[in-house]
């Protein structure tokens, strides 16, 4: 009996974040996609209006919705699993390190799925390299012209270097804010309160990582795969700074803050609500 209870508990601790992460990812991707499109076009080297302006802001939506389910599900399943295993072994003051480590491992794994999706999505959003209309066609074209490294996984390192700092900042802040709320509310926290914590944490992460996001976008949108091999984060940002200064480095920061503020609220709120529903279902 005890063995069955442990198995059920382990299953629930894995499947609940998996289900909740997928639900949260789809919810936010579908709701906030136009803002993401505008942010990408603001960061495009061809300029906002040449990249599409305000037209077709839902181009590439199906690609992102289909990809957001496995990426967010994998991230939260990994994050919660590592956190549940490592937290009991650490003193309370070191828990932020656990959250950083869990978020980092989750981000590395999800980037294996996220990068090809980003390639297809951003090329649809900005009409770059869009000879093929379907997302699969865009990725096939990218593979033929650049292979895996410089085609399908172009910008993998910049994406990872952008997403790792987001995890370092956002997840520990989210956990910290939740802890503060719980301490002031007799150990309780609602989904709405957790969503507000995620929204604030997301805003901080958004501002801090905008230059990295900009470099990632420029590298992914580069039309010449041969030239792309020479593109690296530092030279790209140095070139942008030389042309446009600090303002250039933070191109798209307002839509990005909006994305993270609204998205953080919706994402973490949907995650906590879905997780709670799923856990209650397994208690039956």
TrEMBL record:
It is found in: Membrane. The keyword tRNA processing does not apply. GO terms for cellular component: membrane. The chain crosses the membrane at residues 14-35, 56-77, 97-117, 249-271. InterPro entries: MCP_dom_sf (IPR023395), MCP_transmembrane (IPR018108). It is a multi-pass membrane protein. The keyword DNA-binding does not apply. Belongs to the mitochondrial carrier (TC 2.A.29) family. This is S-adenosylmethionine mitochondrial carrier protein.
């Amino acid at each position: 009996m005890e063995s069955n209870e442990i198995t059920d508990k382990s299953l629930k601790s894995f499947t609940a974040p998996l289900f909740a992460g997928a639900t949260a990812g789809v919810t936010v991707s579908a709701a906030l996609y136009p803002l993401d499109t505008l942010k990408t076009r603001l960061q495009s080297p061809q300029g906002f209006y040449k990249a599409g302006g305000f037209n077709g802001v839902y181009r590439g939506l199906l690609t992102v919705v289909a990809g957001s389910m496995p990426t967010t599900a994998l991230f939260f399943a990994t994050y919660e699993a590592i956190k549940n295993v490592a937290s009991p072994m650490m003193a309370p003051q070191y828990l932020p390190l656990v959250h950083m480590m869990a978020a980092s491992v989750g981000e590395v794994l999800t980037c294996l799925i996220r990068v090809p999706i980003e390639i297809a999505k951003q090329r649809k959003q900005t009409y770059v390299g869009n000879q093929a209309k379907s997302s699969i066609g865009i990725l096939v074209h990218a593979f033929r012209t650049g292979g895996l490294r410089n085609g399908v996984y172009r910008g993998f390192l910049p994406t990872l270097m952008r997403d790792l700092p987001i995890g370092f900042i956002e997840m520990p802040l989210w956990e910290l804010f939740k802890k503060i709320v719980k301490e002031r509310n007799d150990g309780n926290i609602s989904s709405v309160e957790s969503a507000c914590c995620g929204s604030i944490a997301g805003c901080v992460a958004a501002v801090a990582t905008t230059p990295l996001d900009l470099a990632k976008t420029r590298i992914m949108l580069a039309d010449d795969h041969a030239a792309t091999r020479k593109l690296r984060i530092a030279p790209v940002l140095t070139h942008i700074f030389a042309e446009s200064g600090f303002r250039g480095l933070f191109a798209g920061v307002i839509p990005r803050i909006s994305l993270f503020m609204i998205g953080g609220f919706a994402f973490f709120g949907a995650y906590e609500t879905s997780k709670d529903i799923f856990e209650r279902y397994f208690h039956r």
